[in-house]
């Protein structure tokens, strides 16, 4: 089998190409996953933007070497070849995959519902990304729900963790939450959950062109465009920043000063915005929120099974609502993956359309 991989230049994310090479023969214990489908959203762009800092490039080393990177995606695969007694050929698998047509993994800690990839180069990386679901042993697996699973579930898991983190901290005494990139899937997943809480208003910040989409969601108490920040309401506030646009973050900090009770750094959808030199800002010091770290906290508090159960209850409620808000488009082949990647990178993708790549 030939291996096809979408590679990007680590220091020029617009420079993207498909490389072809011979598939490597499997070693004992290894399994070859043949990749069937995956989603691409701004979250995948953030994996690339923070590729060096957060070690996202280390999951799937690029065939062309150090200067190139492979952007991770969430998707489904079939076991095409197995030299591991615990994993059968033909099995359906869900998890963290490269933008490519195959991935060789070394399953360990195999249970009926999952395994971990014990490939040595992944040993130091966050466990949440090294865990693969064996669909046949997963009670939550629904063949008709694959689109939602790969496009939304990793993002909604983060939304769930943010909502839980803020509620657990009594919203740091605030009465309103401001979310940047309110049109993003992680953003509106969080707003959907926050909207169910008493005593908290949720204000969405978004681009002027995305205001109608965000308003129609009906889950934000107020929607404000980035060029109308003066209309933000007074009050003790938490900022959850999905955009990473330092000019917007600074403006919100200066608007609220000591009334800004917590400032959570979550993402960088506006990855190509100006990056001014960091300088002190009024209000709470920005703190990075990393979903895998919060998973560890709640897995310790509640146990992983209980965390999954609680998430599952919210997920079941969210999926039909998200289906009203999003249209899923299917495109075929890695060439199309390159096009979708470029559109998401360039910010020209519509927030109401999500793309699944099928191979
Ligand atoms: N910390 C964590 O653990 C964690 C986990 C999951 C996700 N996240 C982060 O959450 C963020 C949202 O991810 P998502 O996949 O949910 O996003 P998404 O749905 O693809 O977001 C699309 C929105 O992002 C903004 N955007 C995207 N590309 C842009 C560009 N080039 N220029 C300007 N705006 C752009 C636009 O929103 P606006 O017009 O509304 O700004 C756009 O409507 C990502 O940065 C992701 O990394 C973080």
How is this structure best described in words?
With 359 residues, this protein is an alpha/beta fold. The protein has helices at residues 42-49, 127-130, 146-168, 185-194, 211-217, 246-256, 291-302, 304-325, 334-345, and strands at residues 2-9, 12-22, 31-40, 68-69, 72-82, 92-98, 102-105, 107-108, 114-117, 131-134, 176-179, 201-206, 222-225, 237-241, 260-265, 287-288, 327-332, 353-358. The protein has 2 domains: 2-141 and 327-358, Quinone Oxidoreductase, Chain A, domain 1 (Alpha-Beta Complex); 154-292, NAD(P)-binding Rossmann-like Domain (Rossmann fold), CATH 3.40.50.720. 30% of the residues lie in helices and 28% in strands. Strands 3, 5, 6, 7, 8, 9, 10, 17 and 18 form a 9-stranded mixed sheet that branches. α7 (291-302) crosses α8 (304-325). The model has no long low-confidence stretch (mean pLDDT 96). Bound molecules: NADP nicotinamide-adenine-dinucleotide phosphate.
């Amino acid at each position: 089998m030939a291996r096809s991989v979408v590679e990007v230049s680590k220091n020029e994310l617009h420079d993207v190409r498909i490389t072809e090479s011979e598939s490597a023969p499997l070693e004992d214990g290894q399994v070859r996953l043949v990749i069937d489908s995956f989603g691409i959203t701004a979250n995948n762009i953030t994996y690339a933007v923070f590729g060096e800092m957060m070690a996202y490039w280390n999951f799937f080393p690029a065939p062309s070497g150090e200067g190139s990177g492979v952007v991770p995606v969430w998707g489904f695969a079939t076991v095409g070849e197995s030299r591991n007694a615990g994993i059968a050929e033909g099995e359906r698998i869900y998890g963290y995959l490269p933008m490519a047509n195959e991935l060789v993994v070394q399953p360990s800690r195999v249970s009926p519902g999952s395994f971990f990839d014990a490939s040595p180069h992944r040993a130091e990386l966050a466990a949440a990304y090294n865990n693969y679901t064996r669909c046949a042993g997963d009670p939550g697996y629904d063949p008709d729900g694959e689109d939602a699973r790969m496009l939304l579930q990793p993002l909604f898991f983060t939304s769930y963790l943010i909502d839980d983190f803020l509620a657990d901290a009594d919203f740091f005494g605030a009465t309103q939450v401001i979310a940047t990139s309110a049109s993003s899937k992680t953003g509106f997943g969080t707003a959907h959950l926050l909207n169910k809480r008493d005593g908290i208003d949720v204000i969405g910040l978004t681009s002027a062109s995305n205001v109608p989409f965000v308003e129609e969601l009906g889950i934000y108490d107020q929607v404000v465009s980035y060029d109308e920040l003066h209309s933000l309401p007074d009050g003790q506030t938490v900022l959850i920043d999905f955009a990473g646009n330092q000019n917007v973050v600074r403006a919100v900090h200066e608007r609220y000063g000591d009334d800004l009770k917590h400032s959570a750094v979550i993402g960088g959808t506006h990855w190509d915005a100006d990056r001014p030199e960091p300088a002190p800002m009024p209000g709470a010091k920005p703190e990075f929120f990393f979903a895998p770290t919060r998973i560890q906290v709640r897995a310790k508090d509640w146990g992983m099974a209980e965390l999954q159960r609680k998430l599952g209850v919210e997920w079941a409620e969210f999926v039909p609502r998200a289906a009203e808000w999003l249209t899923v488009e299917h495109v075929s082949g890695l060439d199309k993956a390159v096009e979708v990647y470029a559109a998401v990178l360039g910010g020209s993708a519509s927030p109401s359309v999500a793309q699944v790549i099928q191979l």
